[in-house]
Amino acid sequence: MWKEFKDFIMTGNVIDLAVAVLLAGAVGLVVNGFVSDIMMPIVGYFSGGVDFADMFYALDGKTYESLAVATEAGAAVIAYGKWINSIINLLIVGFVLFMIVKAYAKVRAKKEEEPAAPAGPTEVDLLKEIRDALKK
């Protein structure tokens, strides 16, 4: 069983999958940073200075200054602002992935459209040339 496991782990597919998972994690950090540090301030600016991350509803009916204060006080809260941020994050990531896949498909289609070999004279054309040369 150990040998089978070792063979399974050392196959190329498992190594490729491991690399893909690590890259996905790194890309996830970059995307989250882009969304939270660049896009959300822009969205907040155009929505009148609203900070979606701090939007919440306290289930105990009390009013708190921020989500951090409410959770520190131990209140049960519904942090719907974080959910809105997640939806915006999903839309941005989906759009970027769509653009990447579209560009990849375009590049791949160009590679597949290799120019055809230049057409040489047909057999009939060659025979006509030989006939004309013999006539001379």
Basic shape: elongated
* Poorly predicted runs of 5 or more residues: none
Q: Approximately what portion of the residues adopt beta-strand conformation?
A: under 5%
Helix content percent band: 55-70%
The chain-level structural class is mainly alpha
Protein topology:
Blueprint: H1 2-9, H2 12-46, E1 57-58, H3 67-72, E2 77-78, H4 80-112, H5 123-135
Antiparallel strand pairs: 1-2
Helix pairs in contact: 2-4
Question: Explain this structure to me?
Answer:
The chain has about 140 residues and is mainly α. The chain is about 70% helix and about 5% strand. Helix 2 crosses helix 4 (about 80-110). The N and C termini lie far apart (about 85 Å).
Write a short abstract of this structure.
The chain is an all-alpha fold. It has 5 helices and 2 strands, in the order ααβαβαα.
Features:
mainly alpha; 2 strands; 136 residues; 5 helices; two-stranded antiparallel ribbon; 70% helix
